[in-house]
């Protein structure tokens, strides 16, 4: 495999993982209108928990490497633990943030809670090895398959694509289900939905936890692919990348999630990752990237607020006398 | 040093930190009173205040004059971002949700721009390190801390007089209470909005310079990090209520400095957030908020 093909495979894996992340955020914000401004926290917890499930017991002692669990379990177990762990954290954070707060308070609470998790993971070195983070996490089935490095990359791409497809179909299923319909009703008019006897908090919480499980799976896959994860990998700006991918692609449209995760994280972030650094200015590319992504979001909100691929609203036509009238969207 | 003594020292620091946060919290509250959306790019005004001061002090050498220029530039810059960007989205009747994302994007743009110009490294002002302390009823302060407290106090009193004794202040309060009613009473909304942004951004700039002096070295992200302490103060005080914001800031300031001694300095911000979250759990509209202003 030539380096360029290997590079493309790497980019493709990132694309697939971002797609999963955008789908999860789409369930939370696109479907239910929930403001998860600390999405990356759930990705990180998914990654960490997958890591400590796959890794063996922490060596400790002189190596100073310490972390919880260290179960040494094989592949699907780490993904499941990561997904469930992120979901569980979603349950805890959702319990605080999804109460009837003003939307701006919800956003503030989310970011604050994310900062608390960040500070805890960074300082409690016995959780996930503090600032150094986890290293040398075993990759899925790598021991059993005995593939060459290049072939393993292809195998991982196939594996993550399969997982993404299942999650994509599930997200679509949720959208069209009665549950998804209720979520959109809550998003569009919370009081009306409550008036129809829907338990708004329960619905919001369910959507939030499902979105967090997606985040956890995305995080677990990232961990398995990169084999390392530390606090440096989840700066708050990473949350904004997922947000911008969803907003640009089109909220509440899962084709938009695919388009968005190709346009924003892949074209702007990963494809520019290997540009040669400007001499004497190591963070210049990073800065330009931040400005461009910010402008991209502002431009989208100004010229095409619904995103490139807007939500396709289906209307029930009820005939009232001779006039056909669009009454409600389904 | 005994624990009681350390605690007393932390209490004094807390008052200084509280005073600095109060400047921002009042600015944020004033701005919120007029705009009715939370500005997530407010933290960048603190950052811009510090970096503009840094830039000016390298040109003219005299720090306090440079700080004045830096704060002035920040104030005007605040008016500009409102006119060029934020007000246009508001004029389109954008939802609170949209405004949240717009200000988040703006925050990222400003942060990245500052990082692009100055780099991600720590910066510090060219001011002498002060080691001598003054004893004020058992609390130890440096002269610089006392001066910052005095400036913050003067700014608060001045703002109080402005809001209660002048036509401009009354117009600002009227617009904050009920902008439609203020408009039909002949108050020019644009003019009041400009003045409010000027004042709020100036306070943010001042707060940013003081905060940068207190933590002694700063990065392009320090304003964004401080913003959530300001939010915690504003949530305690009730959003859009400048006087409540001062009280909230004092509580947060003392809480973080004291918890740095009792718990660990690594968790002092976390303690402030926990206080704000606990308050929201009990009173979803903030501690001192009144009905109607939502």
> Percentage of helical residues of chain B?
over 70%
CATH architectural type of chain A: Orthogonal Bundle
> How many domains is the backbone of chain A divided into?
1
With strands numbered from the N-terminus, the spatial order across the biggest sheet of chain A is 1-2
Secondary-structure element series of chain A: HHHHHHHHHHHHHEE
Oligomer: heterodimer
Query: What pair of chains forms the biggest interface?
Result: A-B, 47 and 43 residues
The total of helices of chain B stands at 11
Q: Quick one: biggest sheet of chain A?
A: 2 strands, antiparallel
CATH-derived topology of chain A: ABC transporter involved in vitamin B12 uptake, BtuC
Low-confidence stretches of chain B: none
3D shape of chain B: globular
Find the count of extended strands of chain A (DSSP E, 2+ residues). Answer: 2
Instruction: Enumerate how many helices of chain A there are, as a single number.
Output: 13
Helix percentage of chain A: 55-70%
Features:
heterodimer, A: mainly alpha, two-stranded antiparallel ribbon, 67% helix, B: 76% helix
């Amino acid at each position: 495999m030539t380096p360029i093909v290997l590079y493309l495979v790497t980019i493709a894996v990132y694309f697939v993982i971002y797609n999963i992340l955008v789908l999860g955020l789409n369930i939370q914000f696109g479907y239910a209108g929930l403001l998860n401004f600390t999405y990356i926290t759930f990705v990180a917890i998914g990654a960490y928990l997958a890591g400590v499930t796959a890794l063996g017991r922490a060596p400790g002692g002189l190596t100073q490497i310490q972390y919880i669990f260290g179960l040494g379990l094989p592949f699907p177990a780490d993904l499941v633990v990561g997904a469930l762990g992120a979901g569980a954290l979603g349950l805890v954070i959702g319990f605080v943030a999804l109460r009837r707060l003003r939307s701006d308070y919800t956003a503030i609470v989310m970011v604050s809670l994310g900062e608390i998790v960040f500070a805890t993971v960074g300082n409690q070195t016995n959780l996930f090895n503090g600032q150094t983070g986890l290293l040398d996490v075993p990759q899925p089935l790598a021991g059993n398959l005995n593939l060459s490095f290049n072939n393993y990359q292809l195998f991982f791409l196939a594996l993550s694509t399969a997982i993404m497809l299942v999650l994509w179909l599930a997200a679509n299923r949720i959208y069209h289900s009665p549950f998804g319909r209720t979520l959109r009703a809550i998003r569009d008019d919370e009081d009306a939905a409550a008036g129809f006897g829907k338990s708004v908090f329960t619905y919001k919480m369910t959507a939030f936890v499902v979105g967090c499980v997606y985040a956890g799976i995305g995080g677990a896959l990232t961990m398995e692919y990169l084999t390392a994860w530390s606090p440096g990998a989840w700066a708050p700006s990473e949350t904004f990348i997922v947000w911008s991918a969803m907003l640009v692609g089109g909220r509440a449209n899962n084709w938009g999630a695919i388009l968005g995760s190709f346009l924003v994280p892949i074209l702007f972030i990963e494809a520019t990752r290997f540009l040669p650094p400007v001499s004497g200015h190591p963070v210049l590319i990073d800065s330009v990237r931040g400005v461009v992504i910010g402008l991209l979001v502002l431009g989208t909100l100004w010229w095409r607020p619904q995103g490139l691929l807007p939500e396709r609203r289906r209307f029930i036509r009820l005939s009232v006398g001779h006039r056909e009238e669009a009454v409600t969207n389904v | 040093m005994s624990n009681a003594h350390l605690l007393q020292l932390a209490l004094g620091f807390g008052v200084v930190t509280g005073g600095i946060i109060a400047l921002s919290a009042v600015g944020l509250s004033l701005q919120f009173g007029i705009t009715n959306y939370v500005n997530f790019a407010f933290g960048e005004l603190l950052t811009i205040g510090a970096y503009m001061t840094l830039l000016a002090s390298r040109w003219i050498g005299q720090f306090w004059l440079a700080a004045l220029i830096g704060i002035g530039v920040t104030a005007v810059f605040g008016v500009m971002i409102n006119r060029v960007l934020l007000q246009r989205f508001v004029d389109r009747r954008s939802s609170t949700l949209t405004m949240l994302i717009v200000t988040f994007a703006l925050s990222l743009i400003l942060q990245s721009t500052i990082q692009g110009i100055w780099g991600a490294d720590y910066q510090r002002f060219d001011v002498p390190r002060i080691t001598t302390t003054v004893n004020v009823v058992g609390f130890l302060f440096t002269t610089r801390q006392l001066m910052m407290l005095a400036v913050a106090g003067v700014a608060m009193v001045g703002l109080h007089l402005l809001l209660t004794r002048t036509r401009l202040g009354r117009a600002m309060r009227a617009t904050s209470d009920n902008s439609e009613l203020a408009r039909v009473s002949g108050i020019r909304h644009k003019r009041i909005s400009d003045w409010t942004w000027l004042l709020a951004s100036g306070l943010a700039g001042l707060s940013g310079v003081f905060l940068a002096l207190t933590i002694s070295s700063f990065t392009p992200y320090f304003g964004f990090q401080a913003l959530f302490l300001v939010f915690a103060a504003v949530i305690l005080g009730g959003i859009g209520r400048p006087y409540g914001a001062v009280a909230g800031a004092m509580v947060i300031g003392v809480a973080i400095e004291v918890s740095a001694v009792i718990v660990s300095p690594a968790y002092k911000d976390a303690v402030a957030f926990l206080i704000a979250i606990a308050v929201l759990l009990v009173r979803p509209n903030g501690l001192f908020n009144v009905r109607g202003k939502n």
